[in-house]
Amino acid sequence: MKRKDFSDLKIETQNEKDVYFEHEEFIAGTAPFLRGIYPTMYLEKPLETKILVEFSSPQKCNTFIKEHITKGYKYFTFHINSNNTNPIDEKETGGILISNTEDVKTLFNEIKLQNLEITIYTENNTLNVIKLLNLGLRELQTSLENLNFNIQLNTSANIIDVFEYFIQHNIKSIEISNTRSIENKTPEADLADLLFTSYVCIQHHVSKGNTIDSIANKISFNLKLGNKHFIEIAKARSARMLWAKIIHLFNPKKQASYALKLHATIENATTILPAIFGGYQSATSFETEQLVALEETGITKTVDPWAGSNYMEQKTAEITSKAWLLFEGLKNK
Amino acid sequence: MCDFIMNDFEPSSAAAWKQKIQFELQGADYNKTLLTKTNEGITIKPFYHLDDFEKITIPSAEINPKICKKVVISNEKQANLEAIKAFRNGVNSLKFVADTIFNIDEVFRNLLNKNIEFHFQLNFLSEEFLLKLIEFLSNEMSYLNIDIIGNLAKTGNWYKNLNTDFKTIENLLQKNNSKFILSVNANIYQNAGANTVQQVAYALAHVNEYFTKFDANIASKIQFNFATGSNYFFEISKIRAFRYLYNLILSKYNTSANAQIYSEPSLRNKTLFHKITNTFRSNTEIESAVLGGSNTISNEFSSEELLQNNLLKNTQHIVKGTYYIEAITKQITEKALTIFKEIEKSGGFLSQLKEGTIQRKIKENAQKEQTQFESRTLVLVGANKFQNKITSLKEDVDKNLLQKKKARKTLIIPITTKRLSEKLELKKLKNEA
């Protein structure tokens, strides 16, 4: 057959979307932060990698941390198990066994804590664990208020007590977390709980005469990601918009108060990508897989890469409106 | 739907966003700091916004992608057992690889009438054997993947010679016009270091040689084999761009067809050490292949657990409307069309293969990537960067990646697989020995 002449072939471009949602024109770096809290996101503020430390032996953890410091890591998440202090769960929980100040001292022995940022996570009584840590730190001639410690606080924990301690001791930040309660929960129910827990803390603080700006940017979310890839991305986007909406109720002066920081707890390597797509600030994750995702896939070269996806935007709108209704229900109870 | 949010906050334009970024850059150069220029000549912007929305309409196919497992036939009985085991684990697509003719009955024992699709990678061309195989699998969904042009590109030689090779295909097609006999193995180009635009253009120019010879009514019975690299969104866009252009080109033949696409993880970026990095790489590659709209996906380097990943179920519609993907798809399409036209104008793909033009163009891009790999702007974790962050075990070596190279006389320069990290790794192996 004679060769065809293709020289006049042209592609046809369209400029209209098939489906459009009003919220699509919210951007990154400006409230309500649909597309991320910074205008250029990972291009200028890379995702922080947190290393999970949870060997039962404090001695082993100490060695592990030192090794990782030499590899250049400075963010760590400590899973602490203080099994002598009223465990919430009866089942064995795992984590670093810390039952007295000696264990704390072994854990932190010869580590320059001021160079690190540490997140504390426990399935036991959070307040008792922090108090114990603080006692140990004092014996090491330092204390929580002088260091970069973040406390993870579960939506089901006794919030106000921990929150009071948190304020009194001027701890750096509190991460409201769903890591214990995500199973069988819809994304909107999960968000409503996280938002309501934050709201209760903020309300408590503000009612004592403090400003919203003195507390809003000290609270962030720590989310365990499930395996519904695209729902997780939509959920992160919804979380930021809803946070801004709630903070707005308290009339903040600072833009930063409207910005919700997100931290991911990754238990399955395939959920690293949704955390990055969702615009999280940090991830406690698998080191190798996270490095490959960040360095090799090119997914951090543009902000909120899934924006505009008809499906994603619809899910974002749905989760946002449903979670808001649930939140209002909790608030008006 | 989100009125309660809309009431409290103002929407922003793309211009306002850019202005905000420039303000916060405090004098740093926007273009230098925030734009990413790719080897395709495409510039990735720091953000994509509704204001600059553009798209082309991709022919859509309802696809429930299948995960395919490769089975190498060196011993028929073993291959059969391996295939049965995979089927029991939920695999519904198998690819048999063979270097020579095999006992068909033995390989397919207890595998027929089970709704499994069969793919082949046969490194030989025997009309007699193929006719037998087609006859044997007449009630099965099968893809023979015969690609005489791909074989020429890859090995540098025809199976026998130009005329005999084409005659064999002609005979096979005449007797079996409803079967998937032919394939276009565009994976060769990816594995040798061609960029996404080149791969799309070459796949089209490659298939157009078959159309020129056999006419385009075979268009719906050709399987396209692509290799997927790690550039997540470009790989999604690559497949979409190809689907669009395939039909654009078919319009010249007054016909249309949904391209049948088989995707496998690229070899280009796989590393000899740290198997775990290869597994994760191929997991993201499989995601891209699914989202781009592949019909069948090879799970090589990956695990059968992937079958449980709900990302793999009916998800191509998710990409629709995504500003970034739509923009990149359009740009890859435009650039690939330009290259395709140039190839056609200068006499077609076969003629450019004989001249060595295609080989030279691929080499240029591969060399660019190699330089980027050496300067560590193109990173392979554990190979050229972060070696200290990854603990390596002696047994953690993927020996399948070590190629056996046989020098032989070839008609044209062959297009061979070039792993980016190969040179570095061979040096390391030598030092350890």
Automatic annotation (TrEMBL), chain A:
Any one Gene Ontology cellular component term annotated for this protein: cytoplasm
The family database entries (Pfam families) matched by this protein are listed as: MM_CoA_mutase
Q: Which GO terms describe its biological process?
A: propionate metabolic process, methylmalonyl pathway
Superkingdom of this entry's organism? Bacteria
Extract the GO molecular function terms from the UniProt entry.
cobalamin binding; methylmalonyl-CoA mutase activity
Tell me the ranges covered by the Methylmalonyl-CoA mutase alpha/beta chain catalytic domain, including all copies.
20-152, 157-265, 289-330
Q: What is this protein called?
A: Methylmalonyl-CoA mutase
Q: Give the organism the record lists.
A: Lutibacter agarilyticus
From TrEMBL, chain B:
Q: Name all Methylmalonyl-CoA mutase alpha/beta chain catalytic domain ranges.
A: 146-409
Looking up SUPFAM superfamilies in the UniProt record yields:
Cobalamin (vitamin B12)-dependent enzymes
Q: What is this protein called?
A: Heterodimeric methylmalonyl-CoA mutase small subunit
Any one GO molecular-function label of the UniProt entry: cobalamin binding
